[in-house]
Write a structure and sequence with these properties.
2 domains, single chain, 6-stranded parallel β-sheet, Rossmann fold, about 35% helix, alpha/beta, globular, 7-stranded parallel β-sheet, about 375 residues
């Protein structure tokens, strides 16, 4: 594992539980420690907060301003945290809605220390909006982004390509087990794992299963506000659907092991990589670009989240060729074993930190 010799500060608006393993692994790579500054989400966001084991967590006081497209967040105490922790380098969310970020950047640059932004990418805008976005990202000494698409967006905006690092979004370690050979069940099993929300488009998945000639077994693992509604839809259109409820850790492993195909018909969803670690081919909806590098022609399909016909035709195509499906599952396993996992993500973060430290601060 690569190492960072300095003292790291890392800011997040909130700390989702799924991100804890990554932050703890990153903290292990920091020889002089890592402090994480994060606050609590709004209740409406339904984000499960986590607790780090290795990274030192400093609770931020999040002040949430406005809603919807006008939402802003002020993190009270961020400069006090910097003064207490005194980091050599700082990584912050590259989100202009956090109005505390510029003060943290100014504090670091006044001491000739490096600041790296971490974001999804930048919107394609022009005129004044483009200038504002460019000014925002130009305050950083380097950019970390989740995907190649995000890297291209920052480059198109005008941020130097040589200062952009792609750390593929990951929430799982590389699998520690060997992929077991398997054959497609006579009745194929389709699996969904995640929170039952409207944006996941599970009503479409239920209807699509009803159109499959193979009459697949459909297992839906998870809970959420749409469960009652989905169970009612299932009774009408696909009564064979199984709602397994919310499962965590070892409880969910048997479902991955039984499945032949993982389908995420709507946006969001963190279980795709875990499904791939069990050698599953995947069908996912196109989103913010974080799936682009994970789901490829060799291991799955990406569809538009609002295209029901594409969902049906893709599922039929996937289930029509057993040999191809098994080969694609093996490629899924290879990708998460060798290319995209939290260890690889940490390596890119450490590379970015070491690079900007060796170059010195260029911004500010």
């Amino acid at each position: 594992m690569s190492r960072y010799s300095g003292r790291l500060g890392l800011q997040q608006r909130v700390l989702p539980s799924y991100r804890v393993p990554f932050f703890d692994l990153l903290a292990e790579s920091c020889e002089n420690g890592m402090s994480l500054f994060a606050g609590l989400p709004r209740q409406v966001e339904m984000i499960a907060s986590g607790e780090t084991r290795i990274a030192q967590l400093k609770q931020a006081e999040n002040i949430h301003l406005f809603n919807g497209g006008f939402y802003l967040c002020h993190q009270k105490g961020i400069v006090n945290w910097l003064e207490e922790w005194n980091p050599d380098s700082l990584i912050v969310e590259a989100n202009p809605r956090n109005i505390s970020t510029p003060s943290a950047v100014r504090w670091m640059h006044a001491r000739r220390r490096r600041v790296i932004g971490w974001g999804l990418g930048a919107p394609r805008v022009s005129g004044i909006k483009r200038n504002l976005w460019l000014a925002f990202v130009n305050q950083f000494d380097a950019m970390l982004t989740y995907s190649q698409r995000g890297a291209e967006e920052y480059a198109e905006l005008g941020f130097p390509r040589e200062k952009i690092f792609v750390a593929h979004n990951s929430v799982s370690p590389a699998p520690t087990f060997d992929l077991q050979p398997s054959t497609l069940n006579i009745q194929p099993t389709i699996l969904f794992v995640g929170r039952l929300q409207a944006r996941k488009k599970l009503d479409s998945l239920l209807r699509a299963c009803a159109e499959m000639e193979s009459n697949p077994r459909l297992i839906i693992v998870g809970d959420g506000p749409e469960r009652t509604s989905l169970e009612a839809i299932a009774r009408d259109v696909y009564p064979a659907a199984e709602f397994a409820g919310e499962k965590h850790g070892a409880e969910v492993k048997p479902y991955f092991a039984e499945a032949d195909l993982f389908v995420l018909p709507g946006t969001g969803g963190l279980a795709v990589q875990e499904a791939m670690s069990y050698g599953l081919p995947v069908i996912v909806a196109k989103g913010d670009g974080t799936q682009d590098d994970l789901v490829r022609e060799g291991n799955g399909w990406q569809i538009n989240p609002d295209d029901y016909d594409a969902l049906v035709s893709t599922m039929k195509n996937a289930l029509s060729d057993v040999a191809r499906l098994r080969k694609m599952g093996a490629e899924s396993f290879r990708i998460v074993s060798e290319e995209i996992n939290i260890q690889k993500m940490v390596d890119v973060f450490v590379d970015a930190l070491n690079t900007v430290q060796s170059q010195g601060s260029q911004a500010g």
